[in-house]
Amino acid sequence: MPFRLLRQAAAIGFMALLLWAATALAAPGANRYVNTEDHYSFAPPAGWKQNTRALPKPFVLFVGPIEQQFAVNLNIYSEPIGNMSLDQYVALSKQKAAQSKIVTISAVRPAKLDGVPAYRLSGTLQMGARKVANRQVVCVRNKRGYVLTLSASPATIKKYDPVFDKIIASFTWEK
To answer: Does residue 63 contact residue 48 with C-beta atoms inside 8 Å?
Structure first.
């Protein structure tokens, strides 16, 4: 009888170990968004949901919590840009922002996106009576421009800077 109990305990322990291993090994990629068309992936924050209806392709949109009556969100945009350099692409973005009269870019600094040179921009967007704060990473790779934008209310944007940093750190280029 004791041998039988020992075997059952060992079997239960082994099954628990297998379950733990499967969970631990699956966890790193389990929450990754993979875009096979534009060849990138990243880990959206836990609880953020992809919205496939609000923006047309090639936009990718993840919506987070509602704070200050605004849904914090991340969108990623990719477009073909031919032989345009990163500096040219950022200059064009700044020019379009200035022409729009509703976008203000307050800071631009060098950055990296999975090892590829990029720029990090901070600014605001005036949406009617509402002002929205934005953080962006702009990058050029394989003749495509990529823009990752985190949007939040101005009162909460600093709270989400570390969240954006984690998204950027999780970003990888796919084959």
So the answer is: yes
Q: Can you tell me the distance from the alpha carbon of 44 to that of 25, in angstroms, rounded to the nearest whole number? A: 18
End-to-end CA distance of the chain: 56
pLDDT for 127-137, tens place per residue?
999 999 999 99
Q: Which amino acid is at 100?
A: S
Domain boundaries, the chain: 1-30, 31-173
On the CB side of 132, how many CA atoms lie within 13 Å of its CA? Answer: 20
3-state class percentages of the chain: helix first, strand second, coil last, to nearest 5: 35, 40, 25
Angle at 59 between CA 53 and CA 64, to 5 degrees: 65
31-173 adopts what CATH topology?
Answer: Protein Transport Mog1p; Chain A (3.40.1000)
Note whether 66 and 49 are within 8 A (CB): no
State the average pLDDT over residues 25-33: 61
pLDDT digits (tens, 9 = 90+) for 62-100: 999 999 999 999 999 999 999 999 999 999 999 998 999
Residues contacting 125, CB < 8 A, separation 6+: 102, 103, 104, 131, 132, 134, 151
Q: Does residue 143 contact residue 80 with C-beta atoms inside 8 Å? A: yes
46 CB-near residues (< 8 Å, 6+ apart): 31
